[in-house]
Here is the input.
Amino acid sequence: RIESTRRQAMAMEAQNDQLMDDDPHLIALYYCYTPRPIPSTSLPNHVKYHQDLCARLNLNGRIRVSSEGINGVLSGNRSQLIEYERSLHDEVTRILHEDTGIDDENRNETNDDVDVGDDASLDLDVKYCKLRPDIPAETQLFDTLSVKQTREVVSLYEQKFEAAPGSNRRGGRRGRRWKKKREKVQSWQQQQQEQQEQQPQSEKQEDHYSQPDDSDDTKDDTGNETIEVPTSPEDIDLMQYPPAQHLSPQEWNQHLEGEVEGDAILLDARNVYESRVGHFAVPGVPTILPNTRKYSSLPAVFDASSEQLAGRKVYMYCTGGVRCERASAYLQALADSERWKGEKPKRIYQLKGGIQRYLETYGSIVQDEQHEATQPSPSGSNTPSDACLYKGKNFVFDPRRTDPVIGPGCPGRCLLCDAPHDDYDNGHAPCENKEARCCRCRVLVLVCNDCRSKVRIWGEEQLEAPPNKPDLHCGPGGKECIDEGNTISVQIVTS
Here is the structure.
């Protein structure tokens, strides 16, 4: 079994070699739900395994390790990332076999009654992603490594965080960065409080504070290590439900193109700032785009969308597939619960490998370094396929912000003038921290290059701007804050 899986990995490696010979550095996006839980006693050693292996291979990024499996994104040299994948597969297989008490010599002669976690079912889904050509390569690589032991591969339910007893502040550059950010936040909160104190009582609003961070990992501003305290909706047991049926990119297209109008619906499992720059658009099939800022808000969206989902085939997708694993199970469980109103969905599908894998099949690579609004590349091998049902860019949670493999068109629009626009950073590298954010709630906002100089964004000092430069907000025309993403709602778009 191990040898068979290694041959599959070698075949995949050969394919990657052919596609990425010219890319010395890549981003590896991956996850794996193991066929059996990783023993809790093995988790601390497995965390150290990742730390040691990444240090040896000079890889940086973020990794979550749990009994359910592993989820990570790393940057580094292409050959070293492939070595990491091969080593990780062997290590997880070893841990699962070790827990059964079966030694190496007898692995292939296992009693059929013992579940050893068949290697063939260990689906380590690794996607190798190219760097963007429009910003320096060194700005797109992680400069630190974080390996955390967590309760879940991804956290679908709201997490409450409390400082761990006896924990110390982080030192070094990361600690200084958080200290500076916290000081800026405290200054901003003080200004908001002073402004509200000057308002009549009837005009005062509750302030919803959110960190200027787009990842699904909640962080403690003080730099302290944190303890997760999960809360979950009542009477929903995800462990009783498997993920939805996976569809390859080709199967995804075949199913959607054969659907009768009104019989199917697309469900985006991402956040509002992600779908702003790209989403699926299929003639005759509406798409639900949640107005959320974090993954843990998705259950509330499902609860509120039963009328749209009832009696339909649901096609769910996300960036790389991992969020759909739990979200699709939750939707099945919800539909079986007393809380569901109306007819159950006919079927639930999820896109295997997510948008990333889909665009590898049907998308194109951005070639124009001055690229702003997404447009198809010149005719040839880099032209998006006519069969590509995804429009625009794929938002990612790594230093690139968006992946260079794109779909046709530009669904993103400037909030101020409504011109096509899909670059939150206005040509800057995301690590420069010049992205446009609402001055009050700090959600990412799309503002075109022409309009960008006319407003002050969050974090930009008034001294850097002309007198009376208005603050940018996330509401219509950028004039007021609507706390976008913190009020649960959905947008339904049709092609």
